[in-house]
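Continuing the batch. This is chain 6 of the set; chains 1 through 5 are on the previous pages. Same settings as before, nothing changed between runs. Recording input and output for traceability.
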Amino acid sequence: MLLQKMKIFFCIVIGAFGFSIESKCQIFINNKIVIANDSATIRNLADPSQPNDPLPARFYQNGTLLSATSKNTNGVLEITPFFQMDSLISGIIFRVYLSDSIPSDSATIYNRGYTIKRTDEKRINKADFPAGRIIWVSIINNNIFISSGIGQNGCPLGFVAANNNYCIQINEIPVIGYWTLNLYCESLGGKLCTWGEWYYACQKTSLGMINTTNNWEWIDGAQNHSNAGTLLGNGACDKNFSINVFGGTTAAGRCCYTK
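Output for chain 6:
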């Protein structure tokens, strides 16, 4: 306890005496920490050394948390995230640097095996993913979906042209949080679909979108409330529902891409 109090003194109290030097550290506190309001912050948090350590905002801002390297290990793509995690939640996305071309449709992360699929469901072609390229890897259950580059009609792989102005993902992403989906769409060079974009594509059955109206999907739609997001499509294209985007709420979703 004495050592913990000393750490707290050097990390927090020292600023009260006017010193210009600030210390960064990780402190174990066997109790819940409640952030009182949206403007409250925790400063001087050191880089994590254990999987359960809290993460500084810069880990999200510079992409470190969701970045990984890879190598060809006996014909299997071995992906190594920069930061060790206890578990890989379905829906997480990594930015992966390919030191070797993708050798097959098999991959491992933390020694767990996955099947690699393209977001457009086509077979893996090594020519599409050569060494030196950065790809985006989405983990959905026991599958890894990869995307990279622009395909036909000016759309990224796994997208279809809704009209001459934008593209939309063919397959929905199941069980994903609102903010995680935002990051994923941005990683593809896209964004969350607006209500109009999603509704237009949903009604245009010739696009071949999959699972459009079998459950709720996130869209970029405000509800005149700072915490509310919009879900569409459970049963019909015009079905809509409002829900809090905080607190771990998950739903399906897909991204749009402006040409």
